[in-house]
Amino acid sequence: MVKAIRFHETGGPEVLKLEDVAVGEPGAGQVRVRHSYIAVNFIDVYFRTGRYPLALPNGLGSDAVGVVEAVGPGVTEVEVGQRVGYLIGPQGAYAQARTMPADVLIPLPDGIAERTAATLMMKGMTAQYLFRQVYPLHGGETILYHAAAGGVGLIACQWARAMGVTMIGTVSTDEKAEIARAHGCAHTIVTARENIVERVREITNGKGVPVVYDSVGRDTLMDSLDCLQPRGALVSNGTSSGSVVVDSQLLAAKGSIWMTRPAMMHYIQPRAHMLEMARELFEHVLAGRIVSEPQQSFALADAAEAHRALEGRRTTGSTVLVP
């Protein structure tokens, strides 16, 4: 038996309960992983609250790193004792150990600690697919990125700097603005006291930006559209403030805007492509161009408090649970 977070009904953080669960031997194509760090992502809140439905009772979490304890028949992707991470697969990462399909595991290279890797699986790979696939950046662009001091945001700040991209980042406080700038964000907009559209137009000499990466959603939708150049792209990669519904006539009126709502699952497969994404990310980390460590750590038993901190916007960068 191992300890794991389970929930039997949707709701607030209080529905998360620490329980004993059985973890058997891995079957064909499966691996048992002993977790060292478990990432907390905003998508976990969506599952907990029922925005993304799950059959209940269920576990929570899709993103963790650890060591392979056992492999089932036919597994060739990894071996016992190997350090691995993952970001896709069934919910249930909030646990001391679990069985996983072997083909979703990403081997961790020497030189990258598990604590660092815990911030890179979902968050680092998100930055990769946003900047390198959804709307590919090449250097020289000026972009708008919402929630620049978040877990993905701080990696995005550094990736933009490494590529020669001028990043304008929105943040909620002056403290978060300082953190974002320290990580490579060229310009910050403190939304509590600054007008997003006015500042973007000022920074860009009235031109606007070719792309906005918006993980906030409902609260920033109109500002995002108004910051774009004609034929610009709105990448709606999250809805932390609520879902967005956009009339296509509005997109036309705002300048023939292209809008996409990407999902990681459609960019990370097949496995060979996922490994190549990870290779590019790890290369930046090993070269020192991206430095990423958890900013907040909670015991596995305190997962509910981690969710309260995340939803209360009391966090910067990445948050992890320690089994």
TrEMBL record:
Q: Which PROSITE patterns match?
A: QOR_ZETA_CRYSTAL
What Pfam families does the database record attribute to this sequence?
ADH_N (PF08240), ADH_zinc_N (PF00107)
Q: Which UniProt keywords apply?
A: NADP, Oxidoreductase
Cross-referenced InterPro entries: ADH-like_C, ADH-like_N, ER, GroES-like_sf, NAD(P)-bd_dom_sf, QOR-like, Quin_OxRdtase/zeta-crystal_CS
Can you supply one Gene Ontology CC term for this chain's record?
Answer: cytosol
- Tell me, what is one Gene Ontology molecular-function annotation carried by this entry? zinc ion binding
Per the record, the coiled-coil ranges are none
Per the database record, which ranges form the Enoyl reductase (ER) domain? 11-321
Superkingdom to which the source organism belongs: Bacteria
Provide the protein name. Quinone oxidoreductase
